[in-house]
Task: inverse folding
């Protein structure tokens, strides 16, 4: 009996060794996180997952050509310069890294440029790297909870937010890989599902599966990936509906105090169709502004999928012209 147990034990470990070798030969590699080159700029938040923490940071650009100044104010908004002494309205920006301005310095973000173009109004950039529509809604709810000022709320949309809102496996994997590039601990996010009554249900935070020895074994890393893909693949079918229902909730809380609400498409690629955005904005009566850049490579950072200073300049002019045209200011 004892010999049988030893035999099966050996057989098991030999099988694992063979599988690991085959996975390595096939090109699969053990888990490897990205290496951070700056102090963590985020802190844990039980409701949102994470949020920017107050401080002044110096972050090396993706091409290592310059150092970007990254200033977070006490309310977790990124510095956008100063308006005139008397301001008529606040313009509140929410969204992800495109809105926050990942990869560029404070004075290069479209929020900062918008402040220069609209000096009589106060620009508040609450964009948070990694956020989708759902996290932006939850944050906006906090911002407006005790704010009775008349404001304009702008949500900066990119297509990838559709995946983030429902916590697709590949997005959770990207977040987990970024643990060492600004996150102080394992990232986890709230996500949306559609209930039986066709209503939006916000689920508690979830994260990527992490198993022991993942940084040593290709087999374990692959098991994690397959598991996450299989357990989240069904979420794709309702990601547009989650987006729509979340946007309508954002619109409702924005308009509660007679604030204007605008969805701005900050896409870098005109090939990404926005037909569904036009359709749902017209049907549900909210303002939609297409600020996508006219071409891809001229408006993006080198070695990184984020807008460069030219892209941010384009966004600021596009938004400013729209606000003036619509007489929101």
Result:
């Amino acid at each position: 009996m004892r010999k049988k147990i030893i035999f099966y034990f050996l057989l098991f470990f030999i099988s694992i060794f063979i599988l690991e070798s085959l996975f390595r030969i096939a090109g699969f590699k053990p888990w490897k996180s990205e290496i951070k080159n700056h102090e963590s700029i985020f802190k844990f938040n039980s409701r949102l997952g994470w949020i920017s923490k107050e401080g002044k940071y110096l972050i090396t650009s993706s091409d290592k050509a310059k150092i970007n100044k990254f200033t977070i104010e006490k309310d977790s908004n990124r510095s956008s310069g100063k308006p005139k002494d008397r301001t008529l309205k606040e313009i509140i920006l929410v969204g992800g890294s495109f809105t926050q301005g990942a990869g560029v310095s404070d004075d290069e973000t479209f929020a900062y440029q918008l402040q220069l173009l609209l000096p009589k109004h106060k620009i508040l950039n609450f964009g948070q790297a990694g956020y989708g529509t759902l996290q932006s809604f939850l944050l906006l709810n906090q911002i407006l909870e005790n704010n009775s000022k008349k404001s304009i709320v702008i949500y900066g949309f990119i297509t990838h937010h559709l995946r983030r809102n429902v916590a697709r496996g590949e997005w959770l994997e990207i977040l987990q890989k970024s643990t060492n590039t600004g996150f102080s601990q394992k990232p986890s996010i709230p996500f949306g599902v559609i209930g039986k009554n066709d209503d939006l249900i916000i689920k508690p935070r979830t994260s990527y599966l992490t198993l022991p020895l993942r940084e040593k074994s290709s087999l374990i890393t692959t098991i994690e990936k397959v598991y996450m893909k299989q357990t989240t693949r069904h979420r794709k079918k309702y990601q547009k509906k989650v987006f729509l229902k979340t946007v309508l909730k954002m619109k409702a809380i924005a308009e509660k105090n007679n604030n204007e609400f605008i969805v701005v498409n900050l896409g870098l690629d005109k090939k990404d169709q926005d037909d569904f955005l036009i359709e749902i904005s017209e049907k549900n009566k909210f303002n939609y502004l297409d600020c996508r850049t006219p071409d891809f490579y001229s408006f993006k950072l080198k070695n990184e999928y984020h807008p460069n200073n030219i892209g941010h300049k384009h966004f600021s002019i596009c938004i400013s012209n729209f606000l003036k045209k619509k007489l929101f200011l």
